[in-house]
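User: I'm putting together notes for a lab meeting next week and I want to include a structural view of one of the chains we've been expressing. I don't have a solved structure, so I'd like a prediction I can at least talk through. The sequence is below, exactly as it appears in our construct file.
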Amino acid sequence: MDKLKEFVGHELFEIYYKLAIEVDNATGEKETALKYLNLCQNQYVKIKGIEDDMVKMKITEIKKQQRQRDKKQALNKALDKESKGDILREKASYKKALNNYKKAIKYSRDVDVETEANCQFKVGKLYYDAFRDYQQAINHLVDFQLLTFLLKFRTDQISKRFQESKKIISGIKKMFQSQTQKLKPPSYPKLMSKEQEIEKLKRIIQELNELVAKLEISKFIEFLLNQYPPKCMNDQNQEEIRSMKNLCFDDKRTRKSLLRVITYYHPDKQPLEDELNLKISTEITKVLNDILRKYN
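Assistant: Thanks for the context. Below is the predicted structure for the 296-residue chain, given as structure tokens.
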């Protein structure tokens, strides 16, 4: 009986493996091929008690091809949305253009940095030129600038846009500062004196320096998000904060993940009226930039 089970197991193993290869070669349906390979691997485990190395390698290969296919499809969608956005912007259909650029950002995220960066710039420019929403303009232009640091090579177009974004952000900040000076002091009550704020900031800086030396990067980021959640995310949903807690900090993706966190703590994105938060965000950004330099 045992020999019969082993014979049947070997036959099923061969059948599943052949089906997987044939499906992959004939149709390119990676999901179906993986399904048969997993059935194949299960049979081998039942017979031998261990996984088959050949099947394991094939599963790894097909999963890699699957990721490459998915990235290519996502990039094509992103480029299509970006192109539609360009056409709509030329027609002065700014809301529709904005929606298309935002979809392009979503599709290109973690797929193609240059496309994501260009669309962040275009969204920032639309908010600045067409909608006069200057805080949103800064948010997206800062994201654009930070994304350019992930590029191995900056094209002339990217370099020109970087300089343009700096001028726009500088102009908006001067305008905000001018408006703040003209306004009356904030209506919300002062919870602490200037001296108390300075002492609190000193304690926070000390705490940050101690923890960054002791904790793993992922744990340090988790601490930041829990203890000092970014104020610029008040208009974002909580799902975005949760997703940041799940960022990957291995050697390959640490730099990209750190830049993503920096985008939310960047001083240019913080409300000017909350001076203490602005100072805390500046110190957090400094610490994160120090970590980032180790991965350049």
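A couple of points you could mention at the meeting. Residues 2-51 form one domain. The chain has a mean pLDDT of 88.

User: Perfect, that's what I needed.
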